[in-house]
Amino acid sequence: MDPALYDAIHRDYDEDLPFWRRLAYEAKGPVLEMGCGTGRVLLPLLQEGLDIWGVDYDVRMLGYLRRKALPDQRPRLRLICADLREMPLAPSFALMIAPCNTLATLEPAARRQVLRQAARLLRSQGRLAFSLPNPHWVARLPREGESEPEALLEHPETGLPVQVSSAWRRADDRWEVLWHFDHLWPDGMVERRTVRLPHYLVPLSQQQAEFAAADLEVEACYGSFEAQPWDEDSLYVIWVLRLAA
To answer: Strand 31-34 to strand 93-98: parallel, antiparallel, or no bridges (unpaired)?
Structure first.
């Protein structure tokens, strides 16, 4: 996805920021964000003086994040371009986070590898926290959702309008979100680019078995970023795990 368009879509979403901020302050040590993208979560936490690192596999996203950072933030940026399954870092983190359903977009085998990587990189009693779509809530949706407009943006390079819309398709084991970017040219031509983002749906019992296999223990399971307990009607499953003693 074009980093500038990705940033424009997500930059105003801040519902979850207080949740990640609270965990980061409680950690009292280095924080690692997995899938940091263009810095929606990382930069506000960095601005507050927290010791936060970022990993993303997309070098374009990291480049945009660097350009977006304020001048006084840039010397403190610690960004690594790497696959989450093989992060070239030493064990030292008090907290690792994966906001915005990042782990849900990984195929099952990759997700299990990332959990093992997290267990390797956390220091003693360190925490791993991440959000996922609630599979019970998603299972009640129709098989397809019609395209709905999300935003009308100005393209960062051409200056021309881009109509953003989204749709989705649901199968038993995945929920695919389709982002449509319609570039509106002066001659009336519409150039559509579509980004498909699969979210793999995993029963909570299977998720917990995967945590145990990676030596991670469940500390809490929330259904909202206000730390309300999870139930089948929650939009999210938000896990807070701790490295097993």
So the answer is: parallel
